[in-house]
Each structure stands twice: as C-alpha cells, then as structure tokens.
Fold this protein.
Amino acid sequence: MHPANLPCLSAAHIDCGVLSNNHVLDWGYAGLAETLDTLHAVQVQTAGAGRTLAEAVAPAVLDGAGKGRVLVWGTGVATSGIPPSWAATPHRPGVHLLPDLSEATVRALAEHVQARKQARDIALVSVHWGGNWGYYVPSEQRRFAQQLIAEAGVDIVHGHSSHHPKGIEVFRGKLILYGCGDLLNDYEGIGGYEAFRDDLTLLYFVTVEPRTGLLQRLTMVPLQRQRLRLTRAPTAAAHWLGDLLNREGRRFGTRVLVHEDQTLTLQWRSDNGDLS
C-alpha cells in the first residue's frame, strides 16, 4: 500500500486489514513490507500476511471497549488465485496460505484459535477463497466453514474473493458470510459481468453476544459504487440485493427483510426451527 493512500483508511476509521489475498504480492516482497510498515505506522493492525510465517498466521487483536476482544485470523486458498509460491515460510515473507480445506487444516487452525482465545473473545477467521464471479458455494467450503465453528471455536467466518455478495448461513447460531463482495474496486467499466450488478455492495454490521459469540443481529446497508465513490443504493437496487440474498440464502435457511430505510436485516432458523 502506498503511504499516500493512508488518508482514505484514516477517514474510514479502519482498525484492521486482512492481507491474505491474490494481490498482496503484486509488487513483490518490497511492496508487502511497505504495506505492513505503512499500516502499522498508523495503528492499523494486519492479519493474513507477514514477513515470516509466524507473523502471517498471528491474529490481529482488536479491543472491544470493555466487551472483550475480536481476534482476526487471515487465511487464503489457492482457488482464489493465490500462487503457491506466495505462501509464507519461517524464513520468507508471504501469505497465510491454507494447503486445503481438509479436517487436518481445521485442526491446525483450531490449535491457533484455542491457543489465543480467552473468555469473551470473538474469533473471526477471514478466508480468501474461490473465484470472482458466481453464486455457487462448493460443498467443501460449506463443510470447512461449519467445522471451523463446530470444532475450532470460531465465531464468525468471513469469506471473500467474489466481486459480489453471496449467500449467508447461520450455523449453530454463528455467522458464515461465504462472499461479502467488494466495498470498493477498480472494475467499473469492465464489461461482461453486468448480470451480477457488481456496482452494488453491502456494509455488514454484525452484533454478537460477547460471552457466547452467538449472532444477535446482522444489519446490511446497500451501497452503490460510481466513479470510485460510494452512495446509498436506490430503493430498487436495495430490493434487488434483498431478492438476491433471499434466493441464495434459501439453501442455508436464511432470508432478509428490506426495511423502509432500505437497510436489510437477516433472519435465520434457530436450532428449534424458529425463524430469528
């Protein structure tokens, strides 16, 4: 990240940047080092990439102002386009690249989570996986996300790589975002993907119970990108996003309500079958 771009992050009050993606080494190891130095200089914590494997796998630790902490692990998978050679090693900078989405990988992440997570901590694993376009969630991604919650003590799974929002699941009361879409990108004007409405995006506001990590509320604010600026999405666009999340959430037992102020709230099936 170039230091001249820092005011954008400062204005948005960004606390943490997950760097486990398929572009973080576009400018080589020197570019990664500059990105880390630039972010850390203004107290933006990082996760998912580092100067060594130990730094890449370490979580960002965010203080919850008396409500506990949020621990953020950044990870990436080769299906997102991350080259295997970008994987961090004990003596080489790079990305926290997962070898696969197997049970062994779940166990390895569980060791990291259980070694750092304390009472009232929220553990979030951020995963850069899959392609840029398409709504299908592969069964291995779903199984992996559910195992992170059931076996690794993870409270929120934050998936990304798709340039548009994907379906949402609540598993054992905990949130899985399979693909959040891009808040900002430089794809505007590139043709061929108009059906995905990649000009539309969402801000996700997640409320969880600190003691248990159970999801209490998910509110989403629809936005529209135009000329590298974000504005509130018009009414029709908000309903388009609502219809999309309802269609894609059907297989996960979730749906959204679109309110008069154009915000969206998630509903999900609880363990007893009731709709929350």
